[in-house]
C-alpha cells in the first residue's frame, strides 16, 4: 500500500523534484557516475561478440534518449548492451555473418513493438499468461548454460604468446577481484564490480606480455564509430527473434524494480506498453548502426537507489556522455586491448548469474516443477536448448535458444492444465 501524500507543501515540492524530469548542469556529475557504473557491462558485450565498442556506446546513448522520448522522460533508467543476446550474436555472426545477424537483432526490437501493441489490446496479464516463469525461467537458464563453455574457454585457453597457466592467473585474478568487490565493497564501488575486475585482470596481464599498447598509441583521439548496416536475412531473423522473449519478460521485472525504488507506478504511468516500446525501438535503432540490443540496466537502478535522486534528467547526461565517448578513437583501441583471459574471468560469474536468475524466477513463481505439465515444459526447453537441437530445411535453420523458446511457448499454450500428481 502506498503512503499518502505529505500535506506539507515543501515536502511535496522536494518529492516532486526528486522524480520529475530536470536537465541542468548540476546533474552532470551524477550522469557521469551512472555511465561509469554501466560502462563495464556496456562495452563487454560488443567486445565478446565482435561488435564495435564505440558503436555500442553510441547506440546506448541514442537508445536511452529514444526511450526517454517514448516514455515522456518519466522513468530514470539507462539502456545499454543486453547480455541475453551474446550467444545468439556469436553464433549468428559465425553462421550467417555480421550484417545478416543485425537484421535478426533489428527484428527482435520489432517483437517488442508487437508485444506493446498486444499489451494495449489485451492487457499485461495476457502476456504474463502467454509467457509465464515456467517458460521464461528455463529459457534464461539455457542462455547462461549455452554461454558457459565460452567463458571457460576464454578463461583457460592458451593464446598467442602466453600459456594456459598465464591465462588462468589472469582470469583468476579478474574473477577474484569481481567477487571481492561484490561481497565486501561499499557505496558506489559495489556497483562497478565488472569494471574493477577488468582493471585488475588488465594490470595482472601486463607481466605476462598479454597487453599490446601499439594500437592505442596509433589510434586517433577523434574517430567516427565504424557502423555496420543490417542486411535482411530470414534465417538469421528466425534464429534470433525467439531470444527476445526472455528479455521482454525481464523488462517487466526491471520496471517493477525501479518503480519500487522511486515509489512511483511506472507500470501505469507512462505504462509498461510505452516502456517496452521504447526498449524495442532502442534495440532496432542499435541494430541499424551495428550495435548490440539494448536493455534496462539493473546496476543503474541500484545506483539510483543509492543516491536517492530519481530525476530522469541524470540519464540524459549519461546518454550524452556515452555518445561523446563513442567518437574517442583511443578509447575503442584500449577496450579492444583487454586480454581475452581477463574477460573470461568476468564471464564465469556473469554467465553463472544468468543461470541463477532463471532458476530464481522459477523458485519465486512457486510452481510445482514435478507437476507433469510443468515438468514437460521445463525439461524440453532445457534439453533442446543446452543439447543444441537443430531443425533445418535448406538455408533455414532453427536451433538452440530460439528453438527451445518457441517449443516452450507452444507447449505452454497447447498443454492442458493437469490435476495435481499423486505420489
Molecular structure report:
The protein is mainly α. It contains 19 helices and 4 strands. It has helices at 9-19, 28-49, 53-70, 86-95, 98-122, 124-130, 133-156, 164-184, 193-205, 214-218, 234-240, 245-262, 267-289, 298-307, 313-325, 329-336, 340-365, 372-387, 400-414, and strands spanning 79-81, 294-296, 390-393, 396-399. It has a two-stranded antiparallel sheet with strand order 1-2. Strands 3-4 form a two-stranded antiparallel ribbon. A hairpin with a 2-residue loop joins β3 and β4 (396-399). It starts with 8 loop residues before the first helix and ends in a 9-residue tail after the last helix.
Strand content: under 5%
Read across the widest sheet, the strand sequence of neighbours is 1-2
Structural class: mainly alpha
Main pleated sheet: 2 strands, antiparallel
Write down the overall geometry: globular
- Spans of at least 5 consecutive residues whose pLDDT stays below 50 are 1-16
The portion of residues assigned to helices is 55-70%
Order of helices and strands: HHHEHHHHHHHHHHEHHHHHEEH
Secondary structure tally, helices: 19
Taking Cα atoms only, what radius of gyration do you get, to the nearest Å? 22 Å
How many angstroms does the end-to-end distance come to?
Answer: 40 Å
- Tally of strands: 4
- What's the pLDDT, averaged over the residues? 81
Protein name: Uracil-xanthine permease family protein
Keywords: Membrane, Transmembrane, Transmembrane helix, Transport
Family: Belongs to the nucleobase:cation symporter-2 (NCS2) (TC 2.A.40) family.
InterPro entries: NCS2 (IPR006043), Xan_ur_permease (IPR006042)
Amino acid at each position: 500500500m502506498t503512503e499518502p501524500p505529505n500535506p506539507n507543501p515543501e515536502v511535496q515540492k522536494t518529492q516532486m523534484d526528486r522524480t520529475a524530469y530536470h536537465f541542468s548542469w548540476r546533474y552532470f556529475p551524477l550522469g557521469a557516475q551512472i555511465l561509469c557504473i554501466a560502462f563495464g557491462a556496456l562495452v563487454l558485450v560488443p567486445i565478446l561478440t565482435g561488435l564495435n565498442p564505440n558503436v555500442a556506446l553510441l547506440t546506448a546513448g541514442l537508445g536511452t534518449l529514444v526511450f526517454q522520448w517514448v516514455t515522456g522522460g518519466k522513468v530514470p533508467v539507462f539502456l545499454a548492451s543486453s547480455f541475453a543476446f551474446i550467444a545468439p550474436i556469436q553464433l549468428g555472426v559465425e553462421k550467417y555473418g555480421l550484417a545478416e545477424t543485425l537484421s535478426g537483432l533489428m527484428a527482435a526490437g520489432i517483437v517488442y513493438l508487437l508485444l506493446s501493441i498486444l499489451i494495449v489490446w489485451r492487457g499485461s496479464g495476457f502476456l504474463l499468461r502467454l509467457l509465464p516463469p515456467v517458460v521464461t525461467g528455463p529459457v534464461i537458464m539455457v542462455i547462461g548454460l549455452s554461454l558457459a563453455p565460452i567463458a571457460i574457454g576464454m578463461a583457460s585457453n592458451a593464446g598467442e604468446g602466453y600459456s594456459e597457466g598465464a591465462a588462468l592467473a589472469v582470469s583468476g585474478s579478474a574473477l577474484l577481484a569481481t567477487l571481492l568487490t561484490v561481497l565486501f565493497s561499499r557505496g558506489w564501488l559495489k556497483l562497478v564490480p565488472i569494471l574493477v575486475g577488468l582493471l585488475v585482470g588488465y594490470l595482472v596481464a601486463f607481466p605476462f606480455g598479454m597487453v599490446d599498447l601499439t594500437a592505442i598509441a596509433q589510434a586517433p583521439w577523434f574517430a567516427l564509430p565504424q557502423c555496420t548496416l543490417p542486411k535482411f536475412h530470414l534465417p538469421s531473423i528466425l534464429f534470433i527473434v525467439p531470444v527476445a522473449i526472455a528479455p521482454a519478460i525481464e523488462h517487466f521485472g526491471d520496471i517493477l524494480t525501479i518503480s519500487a525504488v522511486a515509489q512511483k507506478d511506472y507500470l501505469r504511468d507512462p505504462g509498461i506498453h510505452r516502456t517496452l516500446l521504447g526498449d524495442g525501438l532502442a534495440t532496432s535503432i542499435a541494430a541499424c548502426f551495428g550495435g548490440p540490443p539494448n536493455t534496462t540496466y539493473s546496476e543503474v537502478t541500484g545506483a539510483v537507489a543509492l543516491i536517492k535522486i530519481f530525476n530522469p534528467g541524470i540519464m540524459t547526461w549519461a546518454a550524452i556522455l556515452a555518445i561523446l565517448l563513442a567518437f574517442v578513437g583511443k578509447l575503442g583501441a584500449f577496450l579492444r586491448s583487454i586480454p581475452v583471459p581477463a574477460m573470461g574471468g568476468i564471464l564465469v560469474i556473469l554467465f553463472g548469474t544468468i543461470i541463477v536468475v532463471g532458476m530464481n524466477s522459477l523458485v519465486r513463481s512457486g510452481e510445482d516443477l514435478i507437476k507433469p505439465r510443468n515438468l514437460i515444459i521445463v525439461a524440453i526447453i532445457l534439453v533442446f536448448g543446452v543439447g543444441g537441437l537443430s531443425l533445418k530445411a535448406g538455408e533455414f535453420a532453427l536451433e538452440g535458444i530460439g528453438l527451445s523458446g518457441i517449443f516452450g511457448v507452444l507447449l505452454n499454450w497447447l498443454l492442458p492444465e493437469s490435476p495435481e500428481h499423486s505420489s
